[in-house]
Specification:
Length: 210
């Protein structure tokens, strides 16, 4: 089911910029579904799995209790691309069903409206990242043994959840670039957003690879 449209607005011409902006979540979700559905068929599963499944595992789980370890590689770009699409869809869902409703109740000005949307999206993402990151710290034993952070450095092997966390983080910050277009962000607001998004990507990429 597609996202709801605001009533009272004219339908823009198909293939126009406004049409793409209004329907970007539906379009992107359809593209993402192509990869998911591709996993269901034997012919397309190998190609679809390149975008959906984690790759570059360096160990195999011979027993159910064994942990599979991963490293980074070129195929991570494909996986990041898929979750980049998911991030765009989730952004639109949060905007449509939560932030827009709050905006209408609060009767915010256009300037405050933009800031509220940005802060709301980041707040939800930060909370999820904090809880998820804390869970990984507990699971991998970093809390009780902080020296694991620098022992046997460089750490070229990661657990599934550790790798998945970085993939999602990179995908999220990459999706912030097209959101500047989808959300019709003003030029004077673009520069600071681009700067902090780029900084996040640089540091996360360095942490992931190093």
């Amino acid at each position: 089911m597609g996202l709801k449209r605001r009533t009272g607005t004219k339908n823009p011409p198909i293939f126009s910029s406004e049409f793409f902006i209004q329907n970007h979540a539906d379009i992107v979700s359809c593209i993402a579904m192509v990869f998911v559905i591709g996993l269901l068929f034997q012919v397309s599963a190998p190609l679809a799995s390149v975008f959906v499944v984690m790759h570059h595992n360096v160990t195999e789980a011979l027993e159910p209790t064994e942990t599979v370890l991963y490293t980074y590689g070129r195929q991570d770009i494909c996986v990041i691309t898929f979750y980049f699409l998911i991030a765009i869809v989730m952004h639109a869902i949060l905007q449509e069903y939560a932030l827009d409703k709050l905006n209408r109740k609060l009767h915010l000005s256009k300037m405050k409206h933009s800031k509220f949307n940005e802060s709301g999206q980041l707040l939800v993402f930060y909370l999820i990242s904090l809880i998820w990151g804390g869970d990984i710290i507990l699971r991998d034993g970093y809390l009780l043994n902080i020296s694991k952070l620098w022992q046997d450095y460089p750490h070229n092997e990661m657990t599934f959840m550790f790798k998945f966390y970085f993939i999602v983080q990179l995908a999220y910050w990459l999706h912030c670039y097209p959101e500047l277009y989808f959300q019709k962000v003003k030029k004077d607001e673009m520069k600071p957003r681009i700067i902090y998004t780029t900084l996040y990507l640089v540091f996360l990429s360095a942490a992931y690879v190093l």
